[in-house]
Structure formats: structure tokens, C-alpha cells
Amino acid sequence: MKYFPVSLNLRNRSVTLIGGGEIGLRRISALLACDARLRVIDPAASDEVRAKAATGELTLLDRDYRYGDLEGADMVLTATDDEEVNASVWKESRDRGIPVNVADDPDKCDFIVPAVVERGDLTVAISTNGKSPALAARLRRRISGMLGLEYGRYLNVLDGVRDRLKAANLGFERKRRAMYRLIDSDLERLVRESDDAAVERRIVDAIRKAGEDPQPRESMGKVLIVGAGPGDPELITVRGLECIRSADIVLHDRLIDKRLLDEVSPGAEVIDVGKRPGDQDRMQKIIHASMVEHARQGRIVCRLKGGDPFVFGRGGEEARALIEEDVPFEIVPGVTSATAVPAAAGIPLTHRDAAHAFMVMTGSRANNAAEEEWSGAASLIEGGGTLVVLMALAHLSTIVDRLRASGCPAATPAAVVSRGTFHDQTVRVGTLEDIRERMGGIVSPAIAVFGNVVLERTKLEELRAGIVRR
Ligand code: SAH
Question: At 215, is the pLDDT very low, low, confident or very high (cuts 50, 70, 90)?
Fold first, then answer.
């Protein structure tokens, strides 16, 4: 069961509420705030409800509900725990085709009432589709903490800016940019601090800058090649997040966490250009053409890639394609999984006195990599260094065989980390001898780490658990 979220205009609409107790009272304030014509039916209404009836804010029927009471109602809510009343209201509303909400009985609801955080005209509504009002209440508290009391004023300031931008005749695109520039600035803080002079300066500045912006549709746009970080969406850089927010179009890889796409501005386009095995080269060409085309139309293109764009991400090729086509671009580095995932698993890639170097390889070429690459990796590990292998799952067996054949002993410590930095991150630790047997349940993406530093993980874990004696 899924509800369609809407906000209703109840101005001068007839709303009937059965039950004026504690929950009823909350509904009453919310409904009156929307200028509904409200009728409350309750034989034992509280003094507060009676007072509102006395001033004419609502009509009170000082008796039990009876079938027939809903005549003329546009909407009905109950706030009683009397199942008989609820069942009868449900039936009558069905007979008359009036949308109804029976408190605490999802089966008798045409609509549900979300938990809301309100700041002036700003409304954030939270719904769990009726599954957990308690969770909704807690989320409400959290969101309420995020949105300071100044948000109502802030919204009014932005509303005023909209009128001024309209008057400045800048055209749609420049107006949009100016608005986002303001929202992404420190305007909210200035409003909170009631620094009206600074607020005014920011606004004047944004309108002036918007006037100086080249007409976006006529001029060249830009491509932002952005690293999204290793997994957990909070591990993107500040600049990376800014790029997502300011983009007109986002072309993203399969690897990125989709929660990042919630940051895309309304109206911007989002395209999944993730490559599937078998059509990599074709997709890569399409991506190049698409970046060039959108930038030529004056758009800000965010090319969002997992980890760092220049670590096994074909970011270099994309940058070259843009240079060849004379399209301006910016590279925004990301936190690569090559270092972040071992770190998240408690494996330090280097260690003073022990591991002085690390090397990052791809496992996708395990079959084709030159002998020298393997012997280089093996002697690095033998010298105490660390080998990190990305795209390690498909060819793990070959990787292990190659390292063994190049001289790494069977006892060489090995680890595989799957879905690093996510809540379901999994780590398997073993040796070249047995790591393959420990892969049950391991899913992609995964990274393999070989070398003595893998043992440090166990030590760190013990330290954390307080087991190591000093
Ligand atoms: N440019 C990316 C790497 C792309 S190659 C970066 O810098 O991280 C894709 C490989 O990255 C995967 O096969 C896997 O080996 C590794 N990888 C990416 N995210 C990962 C994660 N959350 N956990 C484990 N490995 C990951």
C-alpha cells in the first residue's frame, strides 16, 4: 500500500472531525490554520474546544455522532478510540464518497496525516505509510533540530528575492543560478543572526553577479568530473557535493550511492551511464559524446564517478576527450576506495618500521598482466609492502596463483573487504593459502589486500577491544 503525498487546499472547505480530545485538538489547530470550515462532533468536548466554538472559529455538535452527520462534508477525520463510531463513520464516508481518516486504523484511511515540521510557510511532512508513527515522531524531532526557527523568515527572504529577480529581467536560467548561488551561500546564517544589512548585501551581490553571468544557453557550459568517494555518501568531498547540487545534468556510474542523487537540484536531469560487462567501450564513447553535447548547450554537466575519477575510473580518457573537443572541465578528486576501504576495515596500508610502500593493481587483467607486474607486486609484498587489488572478486583465484608463482609464500596474509564503508561492509582475513575458501557470501564491489599490514588489523581490533596488555 502506497499513499500519494499531496498538500490540500482546505480554505472554506467543510471538514468534520469526530472527537475533540488530545489528538483531536492537534487536528483542530492544524485545520483552523488552513482556514477550513470546521465542525467538531463530541459530547464531551474539552473547554478549549468549547471556547473555540464560542468565538465562532468552529461549530460544535455537542452530542454523539449519528449516521447522516457527514452530509455536506468535503473531508472527515476521526480522533476517537470508539470502534463502533469509527466503523459507522467509515461506512457513511464510503456511502457518500467523502475522503476519511480514522485515527490509528490504517485500513479505514483514504489519506493519512503525516508528522510535520513547520517553519512559517516551510512544511516538511514525514510519512511512514502508517507503519511506524513513532519513527515518524523521532525523525520529526531530528529534522526539527536541523531547521532552525529562522527558516520561516528565511523562506520569506527567498520569496522576496524571487520577485526582485523577476523584476531584474534576467531570463530563466540566470535567475535559477542566482537563486541557487544564494541558497548555497551563508544567507541562512545571516538571516538567523538577523544581520539584515548583510542579507541585503548578499542579495544585491547575487543579482549583480547573475546579470554578469554569460547567457548560459548561448555560451559553453562545463563538465565537472567528480569523485563520489568510496561508498558511504557522507564520504564525498565538500566540493563534490557542491558540484552535484549545481549541475544541470548528472551522468553517474553504477558504483555511486543513489542517496547522493537526492542532492541534485530540482529540474536537473539524472542519467545512469553505468557500464555493464561487455559494452564498456561503446558506453564510454556515448558518455564522451553526451558530456560534450550537453556542455555545448551551455549546461553544467556533473560526471559523477565512484571513488576517485582517476583511479581505475577512465577519468583520464574522459578528460582527454573534453580537451580534444575544447570543452572546459574541472576535476574534483574523490576519496578512492583503494585507500578508504582498507582503512574502513582497520587495515593501515603503510606502517612505520614495517610497510613503506603500497601498490594498487586491477584484478580485471589478472590473466593478461605481464610477468613483471606480478613479480613486482610479489617482491613488494616480500619487502614488507602492501598490494591492494581492485576489481578483485572475479579473478581472485588467478591473482592468488600468480602471486604464489611469483614467489609469495602460502602464509602471506590476505584480506578481502566487500562493500567497504557501507553498513554491511564485510571483511574476510586469511592467507594466500586459504583466502579463496573464505569467500562465501562476499559480494561486489570488493577489494583484496595482501601483505603483513593485514595482521595489523587484528592487533587494532584487539586494541579496540582492550585485550592487548601493555
Ligand atoms: N574509481 C574507483 C574505482 C573504480 S573500479 C575508486 O577510486 O574507488 C571499481 C572497483 O573499486 C571495485 O571492483 C572494487 O574493487 C573497488 N570498490 C569501489 N567501491 C568499493 C567499496 N565500497 N568496497 C569495496 N571495494 C570497492
Answer: low
